Amino acid sequence: MLSRRTMMIGATGIAGLASLGLYGRSALGGAPTEGDFEIVRTSAEWREILTEEQYRILRQEGTERAWTSPLLEEHRTGVFHCAGCGNPLYESHTKYDSRTGWPSFWDALPGSVGTKDDRSFFMVRTEVHCARCGGHLGHIFEDGPEPTGLRHCINGLALEFRPAEGA
């Protein structure tokens, strides 16, 4: 029989696990993306150029709340760039409404992103990061539309949209 104390401990544990997705794994022991990147900055330098939320997402592998990104409603022609380094990542014609609450794309520009296994939350996912600075962007899932069948589920705060001339 479950006691009230056991239920409270369990609820606290579940809430703690859920907070990892919102507040970032790196701050709680997870490693940020490692590798040889063209742009390498110290934590202090990143904090100078990014907002607090962008830093949490790009540098600590955090996640923004679903349905909060203004980029969900961005439908102009242009290119989505890394908010950390300006690297062009996604062309607007690859963006689609995945109904997940995050900007989603079915493909990235060639050579613009890298991936690694993310084994958090008792599952294996594919994390996607900027190939130029290593900034965490989001995750890739295999439930997207043709032609790739992929869904790049990206944090809007990790992106900066630049409209095409005349758009």
Secondary structure: elements and pairs:
Layout: H1 4-23, H2 43-49, H3 52-58, E1 78-82, E2 88-91, E3 95-96, E4 104-105, E5 113-118, E6 125-130, E7 136-141, E8 151-154, E9 159-163
Antiparallel strand pairs: 1-2, 1-9, 3-4, 4-8, 5-6, 6-7, 7-8
Describe the structure concisely.
The chain has 167 residues and is of the alpha+beta class. Helices cover 20% and strands 24% of the residues. A hairpin with a 5-residue loop joins strand 1 (78-82) and strand 2.
Describe the structure.
- It is built from three helices and nine strands.
- The protein has a single domain, classed as Metal Binding Protein, Guanine Nucleotide Exchange Factor, Chain A.
- The chain is an alpha+beta fold and 167 residues long.
- The strands form two sheets. A six-stranded antiparallel beta sheet has the order 3-4-8-7-6-5, with no helix packed on it. Strands 2-1-9 form a three-stranded antiparallel beta sheet, with no helix packed on it.
- Strand 3 and strand 4 form a beta hairpin.
- The chain is globular and about 40 Å long.
